[in-house]
Amino acid sequence: MDSSIRTGQERIMYRTGAAARLAGLPVETLRVWERRYGLSEAQRSERGQRLYSAEQVARLGLLKQLVDQGHSIGVLAGLSREQLQSMLGHNLQAQAQPSAPVRVVLVSNVLGRRLAAMGREATGLDVRAQCASLERLDELPADAEADVMVIEMSELDDSVLPLVAAARQRVNVAAAVVLYRFCPSATIRALRAQGCLVVRVPADLGELALLCRSALGGQRLPLSESEPAITPRRFDEDALVTITTASDRLSCECPRHLSDLLMMIGSFERYSVQCASRNPEDADLHALLARASGQARVILEDAMERLAIAEGLPLPKST
Question: Left, alpha or beta for 25 (phi > 0: left; psi -120 to 50: alpha)?
C-alpha cells in the first residue's frame, strides 16, 4: 500500500513514517518533537493515524536542517516556515561568503603540525602563536594580535578551568574554542559559563574556522557534546548479518545473539544522538546515553572479533 493517502480534496497526506523519511528525520525523533513541542497540527485518519501535508513535511525538513546546524528545536518549534527559510538562507549565505583567515592562538601538542601541513588556505586559520599545553602558557606572547584562542586537550576535567581562564587573560583574544575528546558534562557547562565554545575535536579540521567564527559571533555550538560514536563502527548491519548467516553451521548460538545485541545497541546509540533535548540538562543526559552506549558497543565489538576469529567466521576487511 502506498504510504500516502489522498483526502477528499485530492490533497496528498503522508503518514508519520513517510513524513519523517521525506524530512530526513528518524521516526522516533519526529514523535518526540511532536509530543514535546507540538510541531504541527497533523490531521488524523479514520483509524487515528497522524497525517502530514506536503507543507508540513517541508517545514519538518527545514527544522531538521537548522537543528543539524546547532539551533535549539525548542526555539525553532514556534517559528513559521517563512521564518525558518529566512534563517536557513541567512546561515547558508554566511557560510558561503569568503572571508579572511581567522587569527588564532593555538594551545595544542598535535593540531599545530596538522594545521601547518594543511596550509592556511585549506584551514581558513592564521596561527599567530602556539604552545603545547596550558602548563606552558609562558611561551605565548601577550601581543599575538589574534582573535580566537583554540585549546585542544583529549581529556578535560575541572582542573583546566583556572588554566583556561589564565590563558584568556594572558593573551587578549575576543573568544575561546575548547576542543576535547572526553569531558564530564559539568566541566563543559563550567567552560561555557566562562564564555568558551566547547566541542569535540572535529574529524575534519576544515571545520575549525567555522567554529572560531561562531565563537566570535557569540553563537551557540554548531556541534554538541552529543556527537555520535566514540569510535567508528567496526561491524555494520551487513557485516553482522554475514556473521549470523555463517554461524548457522555452528551449534553455538553466541554469534547470532551477539550480532543482535550489537545491532540493538548501535541503533540506540544513533537514536540518543538524534533525540531532541528540552534544555541543557536534557542534552547532557542524551550525550551521556550516547557515550555509554558507544562504550558498550566498542567492548562488544572486541568480543565479536575474538569470537569470530575463534570460530572461523568472516570479518569485515577493515577489522
Answer: beta
